[in-house]
Amino acid sequence: MDFAFGADDERFRGEARAWLEEHVAGPFASLRALPPGQDGRAAAHRKWERALGGGGWIGLGWDRTHGTYGNRAATLTQQVVWAEEYARAGAPARLGHIGENLLAPTLLAYGNTAQRARFLPAIARGEELWCQGYSEPDAGSDLAGVRTRAVRDPREDTYRITGQKIWTSLAREADWCFVLARTERDSQRHHGLSFLLLPMDQPGRIEVRPIRQMTGTAEFNEVFFEGAVARAEHLVGGAGHGWQVAMGLLAVERGVSTLAQQIGFAQELGRVVEQALETGAAREPVLRDQLVRQWAELKVMRWNALRTLGAAQDPGAPSVAKLLWGGWHQRLGELAVQVRGAAAALGPTCWTAEHPYELDASQRLFLFSRADTIYGGSDEIQRNIIAERVLHLPKESRR
Locate the Acyl-CoA dehydrogenase/oxidase C-terminal domain: which residues (predicted)? Predict the structure, then answer.
């Protein structure tokens, strides 16, 4: 199989690289160190999103059969090129990832004309940010167990949403949230669920509480809904069809963006190798073998991602990808501290009021990667999906 890029792709790469070199400068060049919104510069990150939108770099390759929403046309391979160049340029972490890469493809597949016209242009311009209301305290990877309820109010033509979501990325920065909630009384599992879009600016009805992690940052949040209002016209896919919409969204979650993720992985691996050489740890045969294995496995992940991008919809492909990179990144975190030896237990002397302790890059990598095999669907859930939907093995008992 030929994984090479064509002449048109390379011309597109030159255009993307030139734009990034020009714009990842000045105040934008400093937006790399921490996750978006965690360094007190959410406003600067929002300006970056608008710069991307103004340059036509949001929504590459959106399906144009339903209309044009301000994004530039791009083939699948050109989307890969952009993702790779963005990562290589060290461009700022995205605030608009969830809207662009999760909600937009979902609206193109399941939304109606009015919903696409309302929400897609604002996403393409980098003006409206989104978060995802899926996981709950008692329904994390088991998404069918959600308990958040949405009750239709026919007088106002709205839904009133009550419940709690957790591990909600960017909830403090988001303007809108897409929520999976139960709209049918006494429904169970994947029946009776609906996919609703609601504004986050509802004081007294929506409360966001940040979750402080071992790394000292708080990318994730708890979100409490107390009668939050969603307009009935912002119900996507029809009442009771939320499970189908939610599964369609998860299928696109690990698409082109995984290739950009792998560029970041390669950069992290490169830093670990440099430290192994500096500390002399690379002379240890076992550790050197582990580093080589990490490099080889990363190559396999890239080839697998490229192979599955252009293939027909494969229900197991996203789960295979998640299993591959989750474990790989976790092992890299372990290597990052292993190559430094005892020095990995020491931290910098820079303390701040917001962060009572500071971590260096390898320490953050180690601590954050502990969650890689849990968030986004645990390894156990991914294996169940592969077993049941691909291999058609008997379903696991949920009693």
Answer: 240-391
